[in-house]
């Protein structure tokens, strides 16, 4: 019976918030806590979700590559490859949660890479599906891949610095 009254109280609070009435600070913190408690996944579930999404993303990207070599066209390749990248990026939402993931994606250290990746994903779809321009689609995929690599390296401490130093050493030799 106590659970019923607790749910009714929560529903009343939620109804007040949705109708525009301001909740008290105590009510606001308790609603947020309750929502967080209801949506929290166990660590093993998070790991499983991450692995499944990441593997599915890689599989889709590989299927796109196979489709390209089987002469199924650049559109099939672009769609599968880009969807694979989207799902791979989304897989980390299982580890840190979607809000924290979005916050980290748009942090100062990876803001430019994130924007380039997202814009190139959209342009890849547009070039492949709407414009049907194979060359342009391929250029967008290459830029998308490079931006995705740079974005991914931002999560590994000192990885970007190591790549910068390696590239400058290579350019000095040339």
From TrEMBL:
InterPro entries: Vesicle_transpt_Got1/SFT2, Vesicle_transpt_SFT2. This is Vesicle transport protein. It is found in: Membrane. The chain crosses the membrane at residues 49-70, 76-99, 111-131, 137-158. GO terms for biological process: protein transport; vesicle-mediated transport. It comes from Drosophila melanogaster (Fruit fly). The lineage of its organism: Eukaryota, Metazoa, Ecdysozoa, Arthropoda, Hexapoda. May be involved in fusion of retrograde transport vesicles derived from an endocytic compartment with the Golgi complex. It is a multi-pass membrane protein. Keywords: Membrane, Protein transport, Transmembrane, Transmembrane helix, Transport. GO terms for cellular component: cytoplasm; endomembrane system; membrane. It comes from the Eukaryota. It holds the Pfam family Got1. Belongs to the SFT2 family.
């Amino acid at each position: 019976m106590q659970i019923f009254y607790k749910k009714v109280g929560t529903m009343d609070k939620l109804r007040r918030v949705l109708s525009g009435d301001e909740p008290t600070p105590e009510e606001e913190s308790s609603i947020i806590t309750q929502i967080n408690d209801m949506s929290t996944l166990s660590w093993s579930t998070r790991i499983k979700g991450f692995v499944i999404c990441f593997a599915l993303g890689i599989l889709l990207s590989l299927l796109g590559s196979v489709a390209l070599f089987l002469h199924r066209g650049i559109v099939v390749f672009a769609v599968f490859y880009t969807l694979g990248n989207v799902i791979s990026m989304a897989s980390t939402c299982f580890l840190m949660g979607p809000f924290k993931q979005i916050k980290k994606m748009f942090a100062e250290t990876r803001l430019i890479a994130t924007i380039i990746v997202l814009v190139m994903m959209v342009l890849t779809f547009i070039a492949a599906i709407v414009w049907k321009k194979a060359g342009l689609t391929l250029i967008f995929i290459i830029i998308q891949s490079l931006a995705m690599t740079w974005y991914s390296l931002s999560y590994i401490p000192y990885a970007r610095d190591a790549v910068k130093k390696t590239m400058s050493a290579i350019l000095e030799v040339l």
